Amino acid sequence: MLRLDQVTAGTALGGVDDGIAAQPMGRPAAAESVLALAQAELLEFQSDALTETQEDLGFALGGRLRDNRRGGIGQDGARGRVLAQKLVAELAAVEAADLDSLLSGPQDWQRAPHLLAAMQAQTPDPGRMALQLAAWLAKGRPDAKLRRRMEEALAALTADDTLALSLFGALEYGATTPALRQELLRLYHRAGASRQKLSQWLASLGERDGRQRKLRTMLRVLSYELSASGQAIVGSHLAAVIGDLRLLLRILGLEAHCDQAAAALALPDLDGETLLRGVVSLLEQVWVNADSVAEALPPVEPEQQYRLAHALGRLAQLLPEDCFGDAEQKAQLEAAVAELRDRSLE
């Protein structure tokens, strides 16, 4: 199965460039079978990526906090305490071998008079510190005195309202830098502001190599926030933002395909990123026609318009059904691309 990180690294599925090099009189069966295979593999990897997001620690931790609030626990400090308790419980279910990176390394901080300060001197990332403390409490078997000190240190860390950002950042990156934490905080604030277009989110994610990881981190953080809030999903701003980011994560699965198509086209000023942004622009439009499709693509010589439209059509075919608002939107986009392609032959 293809993993999300493999696609980010440039793994390309075959089939997108089939038929791009020349103007075909028809669609060969071989090309169709390759396209079908590419689409099936893309759907498989995307389904796994979303399952990983939907069932991750975010909902688990947030749900525990919500349940305790319903049980009558006061809200002052409850969020941090429950986050700490649930984090330990979650790591207790993980194989000890998988926690080696958290349990190994220098341990002199455990004997320091000020345990948390000693940890901060070694590991300035609060999310990483929280994971390390939780791992020791879950698997490290500290004595009663050390356990109490670790619990106090973890409680102090989780009392910070921004700990969730650092924690989920550490889960994704292993460790985060102050600059990365600031970037995640900026994205978090954007999620709480007025709803953004997909193209605006794509632009705000920054460098291409890191945006899928940022998306996964934000999905976990927002899932935690939504689950912890206990608010109804229907009509929720956070739920809508989570839906938008999930959709964008699906679309980013086309990155390697877009690169492959751009390489096959070999047109000036056209790369995979340009194709990807064109797809995003078209998906966020309520109504598309041949003219709006042409506007979403870079200008090319008339004799190259067919090849470019054909490549876009192949990319659109790879998109899962739920990337579209409904069947009508998908049919409309396909018809618009086909019209542009046919118009270029006139």
Can you walk through the features of this model?
The model is unreliable at 1-16, 21-55 and 68-74 (pLDDT under 50). Helices cover 68% and strands 0% of the residues. The chain is mainly α and 346 residues long. Among the domains are: 4-51 and 254-343, no CATH class; 78-158, no CATH class.
Characterize this entry briefly.
This protein is an all-alpha fold and 346 residues long. It has helices at residues 4-8, 29-54, 57-70, 78-92, 100-103, 115-122, 126-140, 144-158, 163-173, 178-192, 198-204, 208-229, 237-251, 255-265, 272-283, 290-296, 302-318, 327-343. Mean pLDDT is 79; it is low at 1-16, 21-55 and 68-74.
Beta-strand portion reads under 5%
The residue-averaged pLDDT reads 79
Number of helices: 18
Q: What general outline do the C-alpha atoms trace?
A: elongated
User: What portion of residues is helical?
Assistant: 55-70%
The largest sheet is: none
Can you count the beta strands? 0
- What structural category do the secondary elements indicate? mainly alpha
Return Rg in Å: 24 Å
| C-alpha termini separation | 43 Å
Q: Secondary-structure element order, as H and E?
A: HHHHHHHHHHHHHHHHHH
Oligomer: single chain
Low-confidence stretches: 1-16, 21-55, 68-74
List keywords for this structure.
346 residues, mainly alpha, 68% helix, elongated, SepL/TyeA/HrpJ family type III secretion system gatekeeper, TyeA_sf, HrpJ-like, T3SS_TyeA
How are the SSEs ordered, and which strands pair?
Layout: H1 4-8, H2 29-54, H3 57-70, H4 78-92, H5 100-103, H6 115-122, H7 126-140, H8 144-158, H9 163-173, H10 178-192, H11 198-204, H12 208-229, H13 237-251, H14 255-265, H15 272-283, H16 290-296, H17 302-318, H18 327-343
